[in-house]
Amino acid sequence: MTAPAHAPAPGSACAAAALGATRPALAAADPVLAGLIEAEERLQADTLRLIPSENYVSAAVLEASGTVLQNKYSEGYPGRRYYEGQQVIDQVETLAVERAKAVFSMEHANVQPYSGSPANLAVYLAFCAPGDTVLGMGLPMGGHLTHGWGVSATGTWFRGVRYGVRRDTGRVDLDEVRDLALAERPKVIFCGGTAVPRTIDFAGFADIARETGAVLVADIAHIAGLIAGGAHPSPARYADVVSTTTHKTLRGPRGAMLLSTAEHARALDRAVFPGLQGGPHNQTTAAIAVALGEAARPDFSDYAHQVVANARLLGEELAGRGFDLISGGTDNHLLLIDLTGKDVPGKVAAKALDRAGIVVNHNSVPYDTRKPFDPSGIRIGTPALTTRSIPASAMADVAAWIDTVVDAARTGDETVVARVRSEVKELMDAHPAPGLPLA
Ligand code: DSN
User: Fold this and answer.
1) 282-295 and 89-104 helices cross at what angle (nearest 10)?
2) Cα–Cα distance between 383 and 389 in angstroms, integer?
3) pLDDT tens digits along 227-272
4) DSSP 3-state assignment of 256?
5) Is residue 311 exposed (0-12), middle (13-18) or buried (19+ Cβ within 10 Å)?
6) What pLDDT digit, counting tens, does each position of 399-424 carry?
């Protein structure tokens, strides 16, 4: 195979030294793969990563996720396993569970779901029978596939009913949610999503769920870190179940958790195992525990508030440059931008930004007339740049770069793209990412 981009020339003394320095065993056993990992490290170090669901984990989280805990099977739960030899694993999982309960103020936590989609599928298994109705935000409106969208198993095996956002405000209309819930009587109501720039009204959703007899599931995957850091209201006391991934604003490993009231603990645990999964990924559980320990520290609260402050500033700068922000701005870490007025499709803009070292994703916007794989918008967020301690004062530059490159995407001016790429690199060099061994 060819040498990975961004890696030193294969076989060079520089390549061998670089690969051997951080992962000597891997470099010796599989230099091709070692080179690919280093190329990814270089890419993550050199680029401005604005995908709102991505972040940089700490070196401690990285270390915990690559350990001998990989070697152990532990189907079941602490104290109730189907394999022996759990003297240590039980302690690891209990630590993660107790930290999760404390950080999110919930009575029960299950830290075993492999990722967000399996976590949400476990919710269906716990509370629904095939064909039952669930109410969630439509995918093009900012929801998630697993909230009952058609192409997902959750929309095939269950009957997904969708709410959206208002055309005039870009915000969820709780009157619409209530009307739908009263008419459709869903077993489960999901709130939260993947492209929701505004505060989620957990209390409002809880009122509707109580009135209609539904289980309220708050999918906080995107905002878990903001909630942990006190920069977004908590769903505790309102949601029956809280579902979250652990790798977005929460800054942990790729994994997920389900939290709930004590009432729903057994149903959820049985749904995760043996209902849906086999052995938990203990190395991930350990890294989740580390991330939750970090999230309980005061500096995590500073980070969470700064994520929101940076997003707000970036939104203001972009709006000042004529960008059309869905809902007019943001309350959290995320901006959803309709590029129709800029005369550039979202994907064309996202590709040009990628060439400029600014990593975003193309995204549908509410009421989009274009297809999901070639939509009108882009979605950007500030968690990763905040983790790198890129200062708020740089948001004006970031907005200017985005503006320049989106314009260049329209005119085809690659010189501008190359200039921005070198300016981005300078800023990245000044703010090294945590967890990356590269200088
Ligand atoms: N893929 C996630 C995101 O980017 O928001 C949602 O699952």
Assistant:
1) 40
2) 10
3) 999 999 999 999 999 999 999 999 999 999 999 999 999 999 999 9
4) strand
5) buried
6) 999 999 999 999 999 999 999 999 99
Residues 50 and 41: beta-carbon distance below 8 Å: no
List the CATH code of the domain at 64-295.
Answer: 3.40.640.10
End-to-end C-alpha distance for the chain, whole angstroms: 27
Choose the residue to mutate in 154, 194, 220, 244 for probing ligand 1, maximizing ligand atoms within 8 Å of C-beta. 194
Closest ligand 1 atom to residue 145 Cα is 7
CA dist., res. 387 & res. 98, Å (int) = 25
Cα atoms in the 13 Å half-sphere on the side-chain side of 431: 20
Beta strands 48-49 and 358-359, pairing class:
parallel
Q: What is the pTM of this model?
A: 0.95
CB distance 130 to 157 below 8 Å: yes
Q: Which CATH superfamily is domain 306-430 in?
A: Aspartate Aminotransferase, domain 1 (3.90.1150.10)
